[in-house]
Structures are given as C-alpha cells and as structure tokens.
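Much of what follows relies on a compact textual record of a protein's fold. A complete example follows; check for yourself that the lines match position by position.
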Amino acid sequence: MSPIADPPLLHVSDLKVHFPLPRPHPFAPQRTVHAVDGVSFSLPRRTTFGIVGESGSGKTTTALAVMQLITATSGSIELDGTDLTTLSGESLRRARRRFQMIFQDPYSSLNPRTRVGDIVREPLDLMEVGAPAERADRVTELFRRVGLRPEQLALFPHQFSGGQRQRVGIARALASRPDLIVCDEPVSALDVAIQAQTLNLLVELQRDFGLSYLFISHDLRVVQYLCDQIAVMYLGRIVELTDRNSLFAQPLHPYTWALLSAVPGASGGSRQRVRLQGDPPSPIMLPRGCRFAGRCPFAEERCRREEPQLRQVAGGRSVACHLVTDSGEAPHHALPADADSPV
C-alpha cells in the first residue's frame, strides 16, 4: 500500500479579485477590473510554487490576496485547512504568524526612520512570539542566519546596500517562524551577482527551516532555479501549470512557448525569438473566447468563440488551450526548432 500524501500547506480554489471602477456619473454602467479571475493551485509543504507572467497578468494580486493584504472577491485560500478569507481581527492576526511576505523593493518596504534591529523585532512583539526577554537574542540569531553582523542591528536601512536590505526583509519574514513565505519579485531590484546570493540564501533557509515558498516573478531563469511547480498566468488566469522540468523542456501553451523563447538556453523555447504582436486585452473588457487568441499565432475560430478551461493532459500537466491534445501535443511542437516564428 502506497503512503498517503500529506495534504498541501496552501490550497487556493477559484480565487477571484475584481476591482470595481468609479462611475463617471450615477447612470454609467459599472466597470470592473478582473485582476484575478478564477485561479486554483496547491502548494505542497517544503516546496516552492512559482507564478510567472507579464506585468498585468495578476500574479502579484494573487500573492497579495494570499497574504490577506487585499480582499478576495470570491474563492477560498486555505492554509493548513483554515480558510484565510473567513478570518478577521484577532483571529487573522494570530494566523499571520504562519505566513509572511518578502517584498519586491528592499528599501521602500523598510521604515527608513527605524533601526533594522527594531524592524526585525517588531513582528515578535506584535504577534507575541516567544518570551520578551528572549526576543533580542532571537533577532541577533536571525541577523546571523541571513548573513548580517550583530553590530549592524543599530543601523538604519539607508546604511545598507540593496542586497543587505533584502536580507533584513528576509530576517523580518522569518521572525515569527512561519510555515509559508510569499516572495513577491524578491530579487528583481538587485543586480545579477546579488540575485544569485539571495536565491542561494532562500534555498538554504528552506532546507534548514522546512519552509514553503509562493514565489512571484517575471524572470523565468530565477523561477527555473528555485521552483518545483510553476503556474503561468495570463490576464488573470492560469494557462499552464506543471513541474519545472516539464515546463522548460516542452512548454504546452503557446504563451509559455513565447515566454521561453526569450530565455537564453531554454530548451523548450523556439531558437528564434517569438515576438508576440499587440498587447493583452483590457482586464475591463475581456474578450469572448481565449484571452490569448488575439496574440496567438495558432488561434482558430473556436479559440475566439469559446474560452478554454484549465484541464489535465498526459503526464499530469494542466493547460488551458483548445489546440493542445489530451496526449500533450501542442501546435508549436510541429514547427522545426530553428524555423522562423509564425507571428
């Protein structure tokens, strides 16, 4: 008998985040931004789940909804069986010990008027983590753990480099001993050498503390290095979801294929850069069929008429494309690897 798999730490089901826009006059029709429009995924314990996509795809909004920093319109976000969307007030504050966030900008996310030692200690005091007498030692240990020196505790954020400031942000996220850390583009503001050091630190901390990461990025090289499972988002919906090796070896959705063509050395992308024509549709006025059809070089009439649903195909992979077969054959698979891209 095979062992029963542990339930996922995080399970997001049919998450929607819609933002109603102000009406120019009382009789104007209500317009709504469909930032996230029916997203579902699970994050197993001690793994990293990546979400990638262009700006405006909804990946950061998804992260903010998981963190309960914005309100979900509908759907559920379960952390270890507890639906976070049902919590508020003191119950939400207690739950926040278990999920923390590393923000994109390591400077604007730190209070410039507060010493970094106090910044890292603040979650311990707010959430009453550990005995008060032990919190100073905890902060010192966190500094050491992220590669900073104890004598730097009394400094202000502007006295650190960008990479060091992000290490302060990581220490703050670790302070409450969370199970889940949401990473929103945590290395995009850093230069390449510092990116590598920060990613290696995240890998080391995950191994040592058994952390789970929800990792948001537009950089596929970063996602390839860090993530176990990857979801590709386009205009508020997941269009492909699979493991890292499958995604980079043989992308199924034409949008994923186009994204990978821009990554040097990615075996699953076209050898020629796939330059998509046009811009994504407006999240206010969504098209009738596939949201990618207007930019897809393979789109057919059905694609413009009927919206594809995320479905499972061969190999346990999931894709939202009418043109991908149940056996996992995609329209771009028939193209020669060095052929000019049909855009």
User: Anything to note?
Assistant: The domain at 10-21+31-234 is CATH 3.40.50.300 (Rossmann fold). The longest strand covers residues 32-43.
